[in-house]
Predict the 3D structure of the following.
Amino acid sequence: MGFDLFQLIDLPRWNRKLLTGFWLIIALAIFSTCVYDIIAWFTTSLAIVPIITLNTLWLCLGLLVIEAVHKWTKRGKDYIVIIGAAFISSGLIYSFPHVNTLLTTLFLPILVSIFYFQTSKVVFSYLLSLSCFYGLYAILDKQTTWIISDIIAVTGVLLGGLAVALGIMSRGKELLKHLQSSLESGQDLLVRNVIMDKLAKTDALTDLYNHMSFHEYLDKLIEQGERYNFSFQLALLDIDHFKKVNDTYGHRAGDAVLKKVALTIKTMVSLNDFPARYGGEEFAIIFTDMDLQEATLNLENIRKQIAAQPHEELNGQAVTISIGVYDFQKGITKEMLFKGTDEALYEAKRSGRNQTIICTGHKKATVQ
């Protein structure tokens, strides 16, 4: 399933940034009037007119009202920000009607609406800017030098601004959709790689680690054991008389037994242990977070649990396993480790099966 990148846009954060930008515009207007008043005072020796108080104080109050409405309302916050942009542009034009360049601020609501990637909000901002302009023209008719050609020109320019805004928004949507498609493709590829990696490392029948993964992990453990002088335990587990199971009940019954035995092993080891299907009816477990005594106790619990499990495929009979375990210490090679574990497993088979034999050095001990 895909996801919508447009939902990832943090609109509350952007609304906050836009409102902060409006405050910066007012601050710039105050700074500009201060500079103008100081220059006028030095050049004409006239008293400074309190333009800041008269022409910008009401803008601050109006923006405070917009901030309050934006904070307390639950719906339509985006439209409130767009209205705030129209208020700032209209307020500046009204306060300084002789500065014709301020007419360009009528683009501010349209620019703000682009952030929301919604055609309805872009059209709303255009109509709002146009309405503000016509309203200002009616109010400031005698205070400005605007003529009918100016009205037509501003109307056309705002219409052009609408077209540009829609074009920018359309292109932005195309880019976001392309990015979304690329991310989804990358996500699918990642999932496939994870699945392929799992298939390459696990046995298809038992879902345990396979023979190759087992040897890769064991080689690393032996290397770390030699370097940092820590021990671990290797156990080999073999299902007793498994050939008889296949010959008597068929290979499908044998596969079912393998899966059930593997599930028991998997559920009875810890997350730090490494269970694997070594081959055929033989399994291997590497214990890394316990000593030999704890590993042996865990193996005995596994052996007893398997011996107590009936199998429907075997007419309710259970199977048993024989186990050989070897305690790795620094200085033991991989060949010595496997030889000792194999010998312990062979001894468990030779001396009656369904038991655990521990091999430490050249000594073997049966777990009672």
The chain has eleven helices and six strands. Residues 1-6 have pLDDT under 50 and may be disordered.
